[in-house]
Amino acid sequence: METTVHNPDRYMGDLRQILAQGRKRIGILLGAGSPASILIDEKTAKLSKSGQPLIPAIDGLTRAVLENLDKTDSDVIKKVIEDLEPNPNIEKILSRIRSLSGVIGCNSIYGCDGSTLTTLSDRVCEKIGVIVKAGLPEESNPYTELASWIGGANRLNPIEVFTPNYDLLMEEAFERIETPYFDGFSGGFEPFFDPVSISNCDLPSRWARLWKLHGSLGWAVNGHGGIIRGKGREANKLIYPDHLKYDKIQKLPFTALFDRLRKFLTTPDTLLLTCGFSFADPHIIAVIDEALAANPKGSVFAFQYKTIDDETAACALARKRPNMGVYARDGAVLNCIAAPWVPGELPSPNWQSIRASFWGKHDLPLCQNSCHL
């Protein structure tokens, strides 16, 4: 009986052709692993293969936040964690604190009333903000390279970048290489959130789109209850703001942003490339799963850092959706079939240099020795 294998050259060749043709609608989903892949020397603030992540992924972020809380806050957080599933990340901890603060009022839980839990959530956000406000290194890096590629591509449809990350790295990259982009806000003094523009998305295609699904540093609520942007890296109250409630749905930017992701994925002939995304976010997974089922002409290519056995969430979705592919370190799930990578003959004489861009040293697929997003 023959063993099924996947030839990485074939699928990377197909991807290169799709991107070169410029006809498909291209979206890019950048998860927490993207800034974590950029390693920085803490003394020089320059790129270094032996450095620390520019911004840690969600597990590292959780550890860093918990380690920097004072003893009083830490004791309360420990009690919160005991009531959650094992090893909850900082977003789940924050959601729990915020949901309780909204319902207990002057009653007490964990030795805190609602007002105390609200201030605790603010302090947690401050700790998150300190960590995720890091700026890009001065050298060329994966973010500036991605922004350059987006800005240099002449396409019928704009590139749309989706991210649950709170940082301002993609904004900084676009502005550094002077690529115009739209993020749902309009104005100069205090840019306001405009959900109608997100829904219509009728700006020129040369403008990239940047959608911050979980909120962002720099967002704030103005005196009229509206969401504004441009308050700098110190503004951290609207990171992962699942607790906010508004009278009018138009004022809920997160609904509009998730609707944008859903609308993109359900548009025919679309391709979403994911990078640094663990598929652990149930809200984003639900949108992707629903859209792939409804739109067989849409597809998702998930580029995962770990092995197939370790990428359980992404692979589980790819095994039931033929229009989703998982490209892992040691193999792939393509057309619902999981199999190892086995390269074949070189498709062309010059393919060796192209293969080196995705096939790592020591026969490790999806190069782990280079700093790709």
Task: Describe this protein's structure.
- The chain contains 13 helices and 15 strands.
- It has a nine-stranded mixed β-sheet with strand order 5-8-4-1-11-12-13-14-15, sandwiched between helices. A two-stranded antiparallel ribbon has the order 2-3. Strands 6-7 form a two-stranded antiparallel sheet.
- It folds into two domains: 8-41 and 136-239 and 247-363, Rossmann fold, CATH 3.40.50.1220; 58-132.
- With 373 residues, the protein is an alpha/beta fold.
- The protein is globular, with a radius of gyration of 21 Å.
- The relative contact order is 0.14.
- α7 packs across α8 (169-176).
- The two termini are 38 Å apart.
- β6 and β7 (192-193) form a beta hairpin.
Record keyword descriptors for this entry:
373 residues, alpha/beta, Rossmann fold, 2 domains, nine-stranded mixed beta sheet, two-stranded antiparallel sheet, 36% helix, 14% strand, globular, disordered C terminus
Task: Please provide a brief summary of the model.
This protein is of the alpha/beta class and 373 residues long.
List the helices and strands and how they pair.
Blueprint: H1 8-21, E1 25-30, H2 33-36, E2 39-40, E3 52-53, H3 58-67, H4 71-82, H5 90-103, H6 114-132, H7 142-152, E4 160-163, H8 169-176, E5 181-182, E6 185-186, E7 192-193, H9 195-200, E8 208-212, E9 220-221, E10 227-228, H10 253-265, E11 270-275, H11 282-294, E12 298-303, H12 312-318, E13 324-327, E14 331-334, E15 337-340, H13 351-355
